[in-house]
Design goal:
Helix content is about 30%, strand content about 20%. It is built from 13 helices and 17 strands. Bound molecules: flavin-adenine dinucleotide.
Length: about 425
């Protein structure tokens, strides 16, 4: 039987990050995960803090961090650990040949497929907007039958955005001929561009509609592999500059990031067990001894010295909502929630307030250990990271992957 120092539960960004940090600290880590998490639908850009309470834009991610309330995970983690976590993440990306741009002192504004711009912090190089900002004329290029990406909508909406409104926009389409009677996804186009034949074919088609020197907004389809080869080959062949928009699910930027991190974890010796559903835990005298997975065949028991719970929120499966209560299913940790679930939602969807339900989650101390309602640590060797934490609405404030990285880091540094 393998001796584990740490079991990480969940293979989303928080779990992957926690496994990387713990292994780098010399721990023997096993990661148990049911699926790939929200990275592959949400996207590989790292929001840290875009909007403050009341919907005001944070001048920089750093400035946003200063404004968070006492319940926010960032408050528990603290600024030095957040900085270290970002540095650690960027180092992995650099080392693995897929460097990310950005830092806490600069807000990146990236184009979305809806023709808006959104604030974020760390981005792949293919989303760099330096050339886009300088261009007088911008091309918006779409792919026939590709779902959820409409160049005309982007061009029309960009005409309303300060800083982008004065530019001229031209929209063009190319047909990758991938449809075969169905909708095409970003993954289909990215896989087409992964192949030599597809890339050559695409260059030929693009050459007819764009010219050297053009700055081209494109959906996030520049290859599924965690590198910039497809972008470089297209840019070299066409003499253009491409800017990928934020994700259209399935998210190729998230797919690239996850592929890179999983490869890195395997390289450094993390044992990854996928399709493992952790169903319950064995806790004795305030200490977790083991967790138990359920599969199609039989239960398996995994023992370790410490456990990192990074299995997501309502979407990932880490939190379950029932009328009037929220359940954390593995350790049965308490989640404070109004019993009148009418109070969980802010019914004005586009208001300047966060959604109360999004802020429901597990309360932790500064080491990310779960707390009861009186602030006492419930299980000494369990550490919580990611979307299951309470006190933040990632969608409203734009902080999802930032909290995942920072809390994964902090949990792994605390074990
Ligand atoms: C549509 C969408 C768009 C988004 N866009 C952005 C964005 O642009 N920028 C940004 O920064 N953030 C974005 N986010 C938020 C961001 O994706 C998440 O906040 C963050 O990645 C959460 O990571 P996590 O690891 O905590 O959780 P998850 O990604 O949910 O991962 C949890 C993992 O745990 C596994 N799991 C659950 N239960 C069990 C179990 N019992 N046993 C074993 N494994 C289990 C799940 O299968 C999953 O692999 C977006 C989210 C969504 C949904």
């Amino acid at each position: 039987m393998r001796e584990n120092d740490i079991i990480v539960i969940g293979g989303g960004l928080a779990g992957l990050m926690a496994a990387a940090v713990a292994t780098k600290r010399g721990k023997k880590v096993t990661l148990l995960s049911l699926g790939s998490g929200t990275l592959t639908i949400g996207g590989g850009i790292v929001d840290v803090m875009g909007y403050l309470e009341g919907g005001k834009v944070a001048a920089t991610p750093s400035a946003g961090l200063l404004q968070v309330g006492p319940e926010h995970p960032y408050k528990k983690i603290g600024r030095p650990a957040i900085e270290e976590a970002i540095r650690f993440f960027k180092e992995i990306c650099e080392q693995e040949g897929y460097p990310y741009m950005g830092n806490l002192d600069e807000m990146q504004w990236v184009p979305t497929a809806a023709g808006t711009v959104k604030p974020t912090c760390l981005i792949p190089r293919t989303m760099d907007t330096t050339e886009l900002k300088k261009a007088d004329k911008v091309m918006v290029l779409g792919f026939e039958s590709l779902k959820d990406f409409y160049p005309n909508l982007i061009a029309k909406n960009f005409k309303k955005i300060p800083g982008f409104a004065q530019k001229e926009y031209e929209t063009v389409m190319i047909d990758p001929k991938l449809a075969e009677g169905r909708d095409v996804t970003a993954l289909d186009v990215a896989r087409w561009l992964d192949t030599e034949e597809g890339l050559a074919n695409c260059i030929e088609k693009m050459r007819k509609v764009i010219k050297p020197g053009d700055v081209v907004i494109i959906p996030p389809v520049l290859g599924t592999r965690p590198n910039y080869l497809v972008a470089e080959r297209l840019e070299q062949a066409l003499g253009c500059h491409f800017v990928e928009t934020a994700a259209v699910p399935p998210s190729i930027t998230g797919f690239r990031l996850r592929t890179m991190l999983v490869k890195y974890l395997k390289k450094i010796g993390v044992r990854m067990i996928e399709q493992a559903t952790v169903a319950k835990s064995i806790v004795e005298d305030g200490k977790c001894v083991a967790v138990i997975t359920e599969g199609v065949d039989r239960e398996r028991t995994y023992y370790a010295k410490s456990f990192i719970l990074a299995n997501g929120g309502f979407y990932g499966g880490g939190l379950l909502a029932e009328p009037g209560k929220v359940i954390e299913p593995i350790f049965n940790l308490p989640v404070e929630a109004p019993s009148d679930h009418e109070l969980w939602a802010n019914y004005s969807l586009f208001s300047n307030e966060a959604q109360p339900f999004a802020k429901l989650g597990l309360d932790v101390d500064e080491k990310m250990r779960p707390l009861d309602a009186n602030g006492n640590v419930l299980i000494n060797n369990v550490f919580v990271a990611g979307r299951n934490l309470r006190g933040y609405d990632y969608s409203f404030e734009k902080s999802g992957n930032g909290v995942a990285i920072a809390s994964g880091y902090q949990a792994a540094m605390s074990v």
